UniProtKB/TrEMBL annotation:
<dbReference type="InterPro" id="IPR008927">
    <property type="entry name" value="6-PGluconate_DH-like_C_sf"/>
</dbReference>
<feature type="binding site">
    <location>
        <position position="133"/>
    </location>
    <ligand>
        <name>NADP(+)</name>
    </ligand>
</feature>
<feature type="binding site">
    <location>
        <begin position="25"/>
        <end position="28"/>
    </location>
    <ligand>
        <name>NADP(+)</name>
    </ligand>
</feature>
<feature type="binding site">
    <location>
        <position position="194"/>
    </location>
    <ligand>
        <name>Mg(2+) 1</name>
    </ligand>
</feature>
<feature type="binding site">
    <location>
        <position position="251"/>
    </location>
    <ligand>
        <name>substrate</name>
    </ligand>
</feature>
<dbReference type="InterPro" id="IPR013023">
    <property type="entry name" value="KARI"/>
</dbReference>
<keyword id="KW-0521">NADP</keyword>
<dbReference type="GO" id="GO:0000287">
    <property type="term" value="F:magnesium ion binding"/>
</dbReference>
<protein>
    <recommendedName>
        <fullName>Ketol-acid reductoisomerase (NADP(+))</fullName>
        <ecNumber>1.1.1.86</ecNumber>
    </recommendedName>
</protein>
<comment type="similarity">
    <text>Belongs to the ketol-acid reductoisomerase family.</text>
</comment>
<feature type="domain" description="KARI C-terminal knotted">
    <location>
        <begin position="182"/>
        <end position="327"/>
    </location>
</feature>
<feature type="binding site">
    <location>
        <position position="48"/>
    </location>
    <ligand>
        <name>NADP(+)</name>
    </ligand>
</feature>
<keyword id="KW-0028">Amino-acid biosynthesis</keyword>
<dbReference type="GO" id="GO:0004455">
    <property type="term" value="F:ketol-acid reductoisomerase activity"/>
</dbReference>
<dbReference type="Pfam" id="PF07991">
    <property type="entry name" value="KARI_N"/>
</dbReference>
<feature type="binding site">
    <location>
        <position position="190"/>
    </location>
    <ligand>
        <name>Mg(2+) 2</name>
    </ligand>
</feature>
<comment type="pathway">
    <text>Amino-acid biosynthesis; L-isoleucine biosynthesis; L-isoleucine from 2-oxobutanoate: step 2/4.</text>
</comment>
Amino acid sequence: TTTVYYDDDADRSHIDSKTVAILGYGSQGHAHAQNLAESGVDVVVGLRPGSSSRAAAREDGLRVASPAEAAAEGDIVSILVPDTVQPAVFEEIRDGLEAGDTLQFAHGFNIHYSQIEPPEDVDVTLVAPKSPGHLVRRNYENDEGTPGLIAVYQDTTGEAKDEALAYAHGIGCTRAGVIETTFREETETDLFGEQAVLCGGVTSLVKQGYETLVDAGYSPEMAYFECLNELKLIVDLMYEGGLGEMWDSVSDTAEFGGLTRGDRIVDEHSRERMEEVLEEVQDGTFAREWILENQAGRPSYNQLKDAEESHGIEEVGRPLRDLFAWNDGDDEETEKAEAP
Ligand code: NDP
Ligand code: MG
Ligand code: MG
């Protein structure tokens, strides 16, 4: 069985006398920096001159320097800029890494696919909250935790794992529970999940369902509510109590219809495609494609983004969401509406 690490498993002496350089002050960066600082850890934020994030970090009471200066000062250097710019930022900061320092990530992509080749005399670790940064911050402020992962890629000091656990404690992850993984497993499962299920699979399912109804003559508004809006209610139930709680909460009709028809929609062909997508993640095909796409200035990415934005479900959804009161911008306690 998997070991889950909690607050008591973390020894804060592995971080309390160290300086942590947080490179980037976006989704993850602002949360790690503020949570660590409030946990009593010395934090310096590394941002490029003219960065739009500099003012925000200063307003939050943090010390700001250039990425190179911050990395030189830091004993732990946490790279929290977008994955696509990490290799360039790493080149700027590598001279500041001393023997025994730690290079730390929140996602394994650049290490796993060799886009960053760290010096041999530093520890290389991963501390990845399984949540967007604003929740990592909000949970910490509410004395709650955010579940997370740790991994060790390179351990020169013999203390890499203990230090990663202490860092996870500092950002509040051990309050909720932390499990140990590897860079390979974190990277491959993360990419597969977002491609096949979470981001790619779900949006395609929603669009196909919407198009099927609209093409059959049903109103786009009805199709929007049925195929997109209600998805949240279903996901909330699965999140709380697994598939079982969802099935228990919907009508028997919905349950019978879903159980008899679901596997006809996402069938063995989809399963074969999932296995293909997984192989492309495992053999580096996807990583190569994405790296080249960035080098070429993102032509396909921009085209696909534009097409997605002008899809009928988006055209109909924008005014609908403005019209209805459930979307007041405060997602803190979205009421749980009745399931179908
Ligand atoms: P963001 O896109 O939010 O990072 C933005 C920050 O990076 C800004 O402070 C920005 O500053 C800075 N930045 C952007 N480009 C550069 C550059 N060329 N040089 C220096 N600084 C730059 O990143 P995320 O927080 O989303 O992701 C950080 C890491 O965390 C990634 O490895 C990601 O995979 C991982 N992760 C992200 C999660 C999430 O929910 N977002 C969840 C778990 C892991 P500027 O104003 O200068 O542009
Ligand atoms: Mg991801
Ligand atoms: Mg219904």
